[in-house]
Specification:
This protein is mainly β. It is 1% helix and 49% strand. The chain is built from one helix and 41 strands. Strands 1, 3, 4, 5, 8, 9, 11, 14 and 15 form a nine-stranded mixed sheet that branches. Strand 8 (131-139) and strand 9 (145-164) form a beta hairpin. The longest helix has 5 residues, at 10-14. The radius of gyration is 59 Å and the shape is rod-shaped.
Amino acid sequence: MMYNCNELSDRRFLLFGTLLIFLQTRVLTSIKLHTSTISPLDTTQVLAVEGHQSFFPCDLTPPNPDEAVYLVLWYKEDQGEPLYSYDARNSAWNLGARWSDEFQFGSRAYFELSSSPAKMRVENIQKHEAGIYRCRVDFKSAPTRNSLVNVSLIEPPTSTTIIDFRGQEVKTIAGPYQQDSIITLTCVSSGGDPSPQVTWWKENELIDQSYEKTYQHVVQNTIKIGPLSRSDLGTVLTCLSSNNNISVPVSSRVTIDMVFPAVDVSITTIGQPLSAGTVYILSCEAAGSRPDPIISWWLGSDELNGEEQVLEKNKDIVKSTIYFTPSTKDHGKVLVCRAENPHIVDSGIEDSWTLTVYYPPRLNLSFGLSMNAELIDEGKDVYFMCEIEANPEVYKIGWRHGNVSIVQDLDKGILISDTSLVLQKVKRTQSGNYTCVASNLEGDAESNPLNVQIMYAPRCQFENKSSVGANIGSNLSVLCRVDSFPEPKSFTWSFNNSKESYKVSSDKFTVNRTASILNHSLLSDH
């Protein structure tokens, strides 16, 4: 006989051999019932399952070979009229006419001759049809034979419900649970007479049959499973309730759902030095999380919220990719990739990378601390300091006066020492812009310029004396042009000869920045 129970194999139902109820037809006891015509009758006990097929046996074996069955009548308890008949009086014994009371079994009953003993098959037997049935067999000439069948009805359980430790019904999915959890599930079976067995199955394996009756027509079985591991994800737990081996057991099943933290997170980008201002693609992979983890990027204590993140998934590995442009201030900071399952508290794990950021030199040129840049007199010493910030270190430092490179020359008072420049006893020709320059693997850079203006006293642009000739009574204009820094504040003209010497009145000459013109009228040769 084949059974179909929601894909459970036949083998599972064979395991119900531990049931104490066997539904095959058999003689359990010899019950002596008296009638008015015959001696006490043997009674066959039949257990039938409500709503299923049942068989009522009746022995048709003739008392001797010359006899034949003429008529078979079935009665229920003390009913005077038969409810089923098989009449072979007008035909061969195996070609008799069958009749069934339409108000009793009707078309659900059929008398089978091929089995031994013969049986009346009743389909979809109902609870009210339990009772004692009498089979009367009339032979050709031998005495009538009567036998009794005591039919007892089994009511299968009506339903099963799975509830969790909170008393809430679990319909299809149990969980989600975390690793190492111990889960408690109770299967409650309702209905059934006699009380059913309630068992738990894990896939096709029986794992618990310790059921108990709690209320009338209620039986339950509680299991505890755990600690759970990753292998328990997707496990199907089935609760079966049955009190016979004919009807399909009532069942409920749930699938275990679980959440897992990430077991590994790794920044897969090679930890090489980065160049400031360059765009890089950074990748991080997290494995083992269920559901997918939230992956975040951090630089120091700041989350990189502004970086657009691209996520890819391959099986249980989630890959996060961002575009990152480091700056010079990011050198030495720690870049962190963090993976966290939002369903599990404190499940975050991290991988970090201490950034090495390369950038060209950044230079700042200044005068020596003791110098007053506005009071540099000719003949004094001038000090320059070049502050350098670079990664990697600079491999070359240089100095420039305007566009001309400066080299050390001790005879000329030019001293260069790493990041400092000293000009000894400066001359007016050394005025102008000064810069420092430096180079590293990231490039070259030049500092801010410092303008040096050396102060010196006025002197005539024309070093040689000059003579000017004029006639008496004419006007004479004499030009005096000087070179100085800063420009002269005033000019003084004086006149002297062998007879006298005096200062020329200021209304006799004009001044235009570094030049003055004397206007003199020659009245005599004295």
